[in-house]
Amino acid sequence: MSRPLRILLWLIVAAVLAWVLAPLLGHDTRGGFQMQKFGRLPVLLNGRIKPLDTVARTSLLIIHGQQTLGTDHDTLSAIDWLAEVLMKADEADLRKIFVIRNPETLAALGWSPDAGKYFSFRELFAHLQEIEQQSALAEKVDAQLRSPFQRDIIKLFERLTLYHRLENSIEVAGTDDFKGQIDDLVKSIHPSPVPMNSGISAEGLQSIGFLAETGYFYPIPPVPPNDDPLQWRKMGESMLNFLTAGNLHPAVSAYATMASAFAANDPATFNETLDNYSNWLKEHFAPRVRKTNIESVFNQLQPFYSAMVIYVLIFILACASWLVRPETLGRYAFVLLIVTFVVHSTGLITRMYLEGRPPVTNLYSSAVFIGWGAVLLGILLERFFRNGIGSATAAMIGFITLLIAHHLSMDGDTMEMMRAVLDTNGWLATHVVCVTLGYASTFLAGFLALTYIVRGAFTPSLDRDTAKSLSRMVYGIVCFATLFSFVGTILGGIWADQSWGRFWGWDPKENGALLIVLWNAIILHARWGGLVRQRGLMVMAVFGNVVTSWSWFGVNMLGIGLHSYGFMDSAFPWLIAFGVSQLVFMLIGSLPPHVWRSPVETVKPSRVEALADAPA
Amino acid sequence: MSVSAASISDFVKPLRFLASLRLTVVCLSLGMLLVFLGTLAQVHLGIHAVQAQYFQSLLIFWSPPGASWKIPILPGGYVLGTVLLVNLIAAHATRFQFSRKKIGIILLHFGVILLLIGQLLTGLFARETQMRIDEGQTLGYSEAPREVELAVTDVTDPNFDQVVAIPEKVLARQGTLQNPTLPFTLNIQRFLPNSQIVKRSDDAQAPPSPATTGAGSRFVVTEISRTVKDDERDLSAAFVEVEGVQGSLGTWLVSNAITDPQSFTVNGHTYELVIRQRRFYKQFALSLLHFAHDRYAGTDIPKNFSSRIRLVDFERNENREVLISMNDPLRYRGFTFYQSGFDNDDKTTILQVVKNPAMILPYIACGLVALGLVTQFSMHLFGFVRKRST
Amino acid sequence: MNRFFPRIAPHLQLVRQVCGGALVLLALSGCGDDAKITVYRIPKETKPEGTSQTMAMTSEAGAGVHWSAPAGWEEQPATGFRKGSFLVRGGNGKQGDVSVTSFPETAGGLLANVNRWRDQLKLPPIKDAQQAGMTLKTGDHEMFFVDLVSEQPILPDNSKSRTLGGILALNGETWFFKMSGPDKLVDSQRDAFKQFLESVHVANATPLTGGTGASTNAPTPPPIEPPQAVPVHYALPPNWQEKPLSPMRLASFKAIAPNGKEADVSIVSLPGIAGGDLANVNRWRGQVKLGPTDEDALALSAEHIKANGHDFLVVDLVSEGPIGDQNEKQRILAAILDENDRSWFIKMTGEDQAVASQKSAFTDFLRSLTIP
Predict the structure, then answer these.
(1) Which residue of B has its CA nearest to A483?
(2) CA nearest A248: which of A321, A182, A317, A161?
(3) What is the ipTM of this complex?
């Protein structure tokens, strides 16, 4: 490649890297408050210590469907929104964030269908009893059998509950001067084992009890040097502790001061208190602070989103390389692919560090890992064959899987704690990784086959050499897929045998994995026996996409068995559409060669490795 | 020569068919269909019914809704597995030559053969039961979670009970039973695998109960279909008439919902009738010392659970403490005890007890298959790389 | 936490019998003999759990705590925050009431609640709860059992009232099992009540649906649980408007008086006795700058309004002079209701005349309150 072209390449790489790292430049200081630093404060939620930023992002995602909130004037980041909810609830209640799409839900609340899509907490709170009743009725129905209205109303109630609990996590929602209340408390009460004898008013005690019960996360760390995650407390619990034992925790007054300062629009006090508290945390809980800081940065960077976008660029470059300047564009695509792979890998490794687990722990991480595995294999293929096909298919799969992951992240925190039976890192690292690599490679084989069919049937660009390379690629990847899916499935059986004494239980997920193994085995046997040739191999490989998407996603929608992740109603039509599209391509691939635009010859079956029916 | 040649070729043609690759592909494809249909069927039938009907069966039947006849449409798991096994063995016997190049494939096929045999043996001979032990309780038996038995116990002796245990399969046949150790016959008038039992006071319209004595008269029993949910148990019931030499002593309603045994006396012996989960007594006993259930902070998500158990076996002079936790079972005298679950607010542990003589086979099989696959594919890969570099 | 050792002696004996005594084991376990009748001999087992007359299919309650009601107790719908409710009938149309309730944490503590019950029977409070009752073993829990009888006949039919109670701490909650009614009737039910207490146990599933409780499911996002709420019904007098709820109050109103001023009305509910009547009245007295009063004076000056089976203690407190920002006389009209192990405070505050003008509306409001 000539020098100017090489310089252009590095410029492009630099630009891409700059774009990936750009979010780090943002410094959220809305209204003069150090919002970014506030977002780094660690709290305990759902068994994991995480930064407030994660709580903000996941909560806003659950309630509003996005990680930012757009208003008429500007955009609030998730932590801006959460700060308002926590410390200025009266204003936050007016923001229209709750999405209602289902017309029946609107009707149940007495609104006409054109009342809009977004509603505020204040508007919905007036109908809370109604919503609660409907939700309770809907819950009685089995999850798989619920109507769209029932699912919608249950979701709405869950979101309202989440919001209500969030706004009562630091202070009782709508409190003007929490610090003042705390100061009063410190002055007037004398700790006593029976909280009511401490001199607190009945109403005061009620509100503390309310905070303890309703609060969503646990912001108050244990008293150092205690570092036990089980000892983190909710605001109300810590205050109750203060009533019975004395010793107001410094975190309580820190949060109270910040809350009052935020409500009174006093950035100076807010920032100062925030600084002091952060320093105190760093002094006593350094390793936790380090981890939550890394998680905050990770949230900001959103590496998977960036990678997803770049994969599209790579795909375009790779496809273009088949039309013009194959060497240059091919190389550009390949280099960018490696760069993006690094970004993808960094994201994956960071997740592993934050969770302390092997890469695949839930459906979200399986999507990310399938993309990663497919891209890795694609890079190896491109390195060998250098014809842009490896890059194109890798980029395509990378994009699709990260898009799926992005949608899966809408359910909440993607780094959840693992249930007891699943939490052995050994098996997670072997069985799950193998099976997921099996999925990735079957998908790769399928997409390679799609490339063959699309290029062959619709363009004249499938020449003999390309067809042969593709054939070798697909065959090689199917072998790889057979190995990993078989070994992965077997490891799963051994894990099951070690855990509950049953090697194979015909569980839907197990069955799905078995289907993949069987199909890959059938492809190989059919190929070896000469039952199919080049086109037949491709058509069968495309069916592998159908089998794998069933095994990966479809079984989860049955809602049964040991692997049930719950009903994913929105994904179901997409799954069906994907299946149908693959069947269409299979049909196209089966059309006789003279219909194809490329000269696909009927190649004589190669008997080099055939275990053919020899005469006895 | 002609006669023997003809008979040999008669033999050869079906053998060739049995050993053919086409048969392999057909069987594997049918297998995929079987697995897929079985997965779908689980939504309505539940996993255990599907296991029995689809995978541990010879044929799969289908009947149009409402019809009483059924036609076989697919071979069941046992048939398909056997055909695959025969196909694999025949292929190796006829077509394969033992060459170095084929070593990978031979290994892996041998592994598959072992796997199939192992699963067949497991299906036939393995038994899974459960032990529910409360804290402080000592238990010397395990129970079948989905099978009941009628226990007729002679409780006269102050030190021992003599139990006649009638398993569900026998009860289902209904009719009269006679056992040489009992001075009466039992007439199983009706056995209901799953039922609904309500107080008679709540259902005034119900027909009179067939039960003439004991608790039966207070309840109304209606038959319902067996449960398909994994965490529910059937409420079995039966109407049992006890007939002594001088005639009927009465008809009792027995059920696993009626936990207090109902008794009667014959020839100076007191007998108790009760339906309970089928018990399998062991020659040793387990006591639950403590069940630990750690949760993640601020949640109800289980982090790990474990049971501290005392194992006592007087035959073999064993008296020791063991810790059974998830992914760490106790293996003893052919049984393996897994930490399966808990109940009663962490005061009861549930252990899964598995006896499977074919347990070791999958491990050997998997090792062979993995070795075979790796060998075969690395040979391909290196050959491919070598060719590319020339 | 090895509770096994104190009981090792009898258990070893049993185990010895189980193993060494398993003489004739004619059972063929696990070899496909599913259709064979087996006969075997085993040593006597100790029967698990207490035998109950009723079926194992007992009534459920939420939160996994179960009990069996003795024969003759009529189950009532468990409304409001009662987890269980029964009616016991005696001769001459006499009735006793049995309630099961639970409250978070210690709900005020043992002593406070025993004194509550004593207070309801017009008995003087005691200092040491241990004197009031005894510990009862129920299964593997320990329940605190009290047996209280009023000294005077306080019931409408001129009989003494008796309360039998069981208090059980479980899982961060306190459960209260209470039977109250005419002395003779409740007295005759003491054994049945004790049996009832002994039947209390915790289970995650009903005995029939033998739950494995095994969490073998793959991780799902944990459900977001709503906090508890206690419902109350009322009829709103004219001129009273609902105000937006603040979480500390169950209900909140403003009453507009003829003189144009607004009075603020709130209903607050707390578990247990929440300090006691006197402490709360003195707190309110403090708020209108009045000095504290004592038990006797309170007993003399306070009114009692009985309605709907509730007995409200009502106080009417006026400040002596103008106080506060508005520099006007303030009045507090408040009612305290102790019922079902919870205390309810209905309070109206505002300018003296405004509140005074609403006094009859306040009384009407109290009469309209149904607290389930």
Answers:
(1) B373
(2) A182
(3) 0.86
Which of A83, A101, A102, A219 has its CA nearest to residue A149? A102
Of B282 and A603, the structure prediction assigns the larger pLDDT to B282
Q: What is the mean pLDDT of residues C355-363?
A: 87
Min distance C224 CA to chain A CA atoms (Å): 6
CA B147 to chain centre: 9
Please, what is the average pLDDT of chain C? 68
C223 touches chain A (CB under 8 A): yes
Q: Is the pLDDT of residue A45 over 60?
A: yes
C219 contacts B165? CB cut-off 8 A: no
Helix then strand then coil, % of chain B, to nearest 5: 35, 40, 25
Distances (CA, A) of A461 to A331, A355, A453, A455: 19, 47, 11, 6
Q: Which amino acid is at A601?
A: E
Question: C173 to chain B: which residues are within 8 Å by CB?
Answer: none
Domain range annotation of chain A: 178-292, 302-417, 426-610
Contact status of C62 with chain A (Cβ, < 8 Å):
no
The verdict on whether omega for the bond into residue A250 sits within 30 degrees of 0, i.e. cis, is no
- Write down the pLDDT at residue A340: 96
**Is A490 strand, coil or helix?**
helix
C-beta atoms of A194 and C109 within 8 A = yes
Q: Taking CA atoms, what residue in A is nearest to C280?
A: A202
Long-range contacts of A226-234 (CB under 8 A, 24+ apart): A227/A285, A227/A288, A228/B297, A229/A44, A229/A47, A229/A49, A229/B296, A229/B297, A230/B297, A230/B298, A231/B297, A232/A43, A232/A44, A232/A49, A232/B297, A232/B298, A234/A169
Nearest C-alpha neighbor of A334 from the set A397, A393, A379, A381: A379
- Taking residues C334-345, report their average pLDDT: 78
What subunits touch chain A, counting only 3 or more CB pairs under 8 A? B, C
Contact C204, B344 (CB under 8 A): yes
Give tens-digit pLDDT for C250-271. 566 778 888 778 888 877 766 5
Question: Out of C222, C225, C275, whose CB is closest to A46?
Answer: C222
For residue C108, the model assigns a pLDDT of: 60
User: Is C246 near chain A, with CB under 8 Å?
Assistant: yes
Integer-rounded Cα Rg, in Å, for chain C is 27
From C238's Cα to the closest Cα of chain B, the distance in A is 46
Contacts with C219 from chain A: Cβ below 8 Å: 361-362, 416-419, 422, 565
Interface of C with B in 142-181 (CB under 8 A): 171
On whether any CB of chain A is under 8 Å from the CB of B340, the answer is: yes
Long-range residue pairs from C10-18, CB within 8 A, at least 24 positions apart, any chain: C11/B138, C11/B287, C12/B312, C14/B138, C14/C43, C14/C45, C14/C46, C15/B138, C15/B140, C15/B285, C15/B287, C15/B312, C15/B314, C16/B314, C17/B159, C17/C43, C17/C44, C18/B138, C18/B140, C18/B285, C18/C42, C18/C43
pLDDT, tens only, C191-243:
888 888 877 776 543 222 222 333 222 233 344 544 444 445 566 666 666 65
- Tell me which chain C residue has its CA closest to the CA of residue B147: C34
Between C219, C225, C247, which is nearest A210 by CB? C247
B390 touches A: beta carbon within 8 Å: no
- Residues of chain B in contact with residue C40, where contact means CB-CB under 8 angstroms, are 162-163, 165, 281
- To the question of pTM greater than 0.95 for the whole model, the response is no
Domains identified in chain C and CATH numbers: 1-46 (no CATH), 65-202 (3.40.1000.10), 240-368 (3.40.1000.10)
Identity of the residue in A384, A491, A555 whose CB atom sits nearest the CB atom of B388: A384
Q: Hey, which chains touch C, using 3+ CB pairs under 8 Å? A: A, B
- Of the candidates A447, A448, A529, A444, the residue with the CA atom closest to the CA atom of residue A484: A444
